[in-house]
Amino acid sequence: MTLRGRTPRVPGLRSYSRRDALRIGAVTTGAAALSAACGGSGGSGKEIGIAVGNGISYAALTVIRAKGWLEQELKGRTITWRVISGGGTVRDALLSGKLHIGSSGLGPLLIGWDAGVPWKIVSSLNDMPLWLVAKDPRYRSLRDFGQGDQIAAVQPGSIQSVMLQKAAQQQLGDPHALDRNIATMAHPEALQALLGGQIAAAYTSPPFQFQAVEQGARKLVDSYQLFGRHGFNVMAATEEYAEKNPDVISAVHRTIARANDFITKQPAEAAKILSQAEQGKISAQAYERYLTHEGIEFTTTPHGILKIAAFMKEIGVIKKVPRDWRDLAFDTVKKENGS
Fold it and tell me: Which residues, listed in sequence order, are joined to residue 327 by a DSSP beta bridge?
């Protein structure tokens, strides 16, 4: 890698390494044991806490919330929605019982499963390509990044960091060559830092990667070219909570399927809902363009789990690979044609 042309280091951002990603698993194992001892994750009260993230990956959940479908399905229950960035943070909230169902990328999901976290997939949300983007013309490939060039990703062990490791393996011959370049940052802040020249590149998700390209950035890595079509985010819950609340698990899967069908068949109407949820900060026309972008599919079926897990094991991020993708799923999706 070249060391020329370093970007300014953003104050307050923490770079992380392979060791950090591995430590997530160890820390969470302790959290799982504590949760089991205290019974924290199996609540069956009237309030249902659901975690979502940033971006159109959560479009189905935005539609469900706007239309009140879960309240209709689960009468007498109160649905509380919280925006949380990063599957690892969601995982800890689920284990503590502070939340009951939450979103996770496949990277954190597999790290948790490998460490013994008792959680499984309720439903996938979508398949989406994930891009590494850079705006400075000095960055044309991974070979152009020096030691001081920061690459934003949402969290250690995130699916974006896994994709960067796969690209580094292919382009640089070492999957961990850029581990220390990665800095934690939520997707919206990463987009602004990239456009402002504070970081060298950002590995985000739709629509942030699309917005970056619209404002002069270029795509350096496309995850579909690394692994083929794959899932991005899933909704997960602990086994204890699912056992005590099968009606909630079923309703979440059912309403996600309904919302995905709505988005696919009526993207213009779905785009209006997303725009209204953002108080018009992004126009409905732009949202419709993003929702219908090539390669995006809103589906409840998990895809790509086994091949992504195999790579993570190959590079030492997890120790084992599921025998079957269904090992990580509840009955809600086991009959679907996943991978």
Answer: none
pTM: 0.86
Where are any strands of DSSP class E within the chain?
Answer: 47-52, 78-83, 101-105, 119-124, 131-134, 151-153, 182-184, 201-203, 218-222, 233-238
Q: How many other CB atoms sit within 10 Å of the CB of residue 186?
A: 18
> Cβ neighbours of residue 237 under 8 Å, at least 6 residues apart?
94, 100, 101, 102, 119, 120, 122, 249, 330
Cβ contacts of residue 37 below 8 Å, gap of 6+?
Answer: none
CB 123 within 8 A of CB 330: no
Q: What was the pLDDT predicted at 42?
A: 55
Determine the pLDDT at residue 54: 81
Q: In whole angstroms, what is the distance from residue 79 CA to residue 49 CA?
A: 6
Q: Which residues of the chain have pLDDT under 50?
A: 1-40
Asked if residues 84 and 284 have their Cβ atoms less than 8 Å apart, the reply is no
**Whole-angstrom distance, CA of residue 66 vs CA of residue 287:** 16
- Which residue type occupies 76? G
Report pLDDT for 44.
55
37: tokens are: 């001892």
Reduced to 3 states, what is the DSSP secondary structure of residue 144? helix
Q: Where are the alpha helices (DSSP H) in 173-296?
A: 187-195, 208-214, 223-227, 239-244, 246-265, 267-277, 284-291
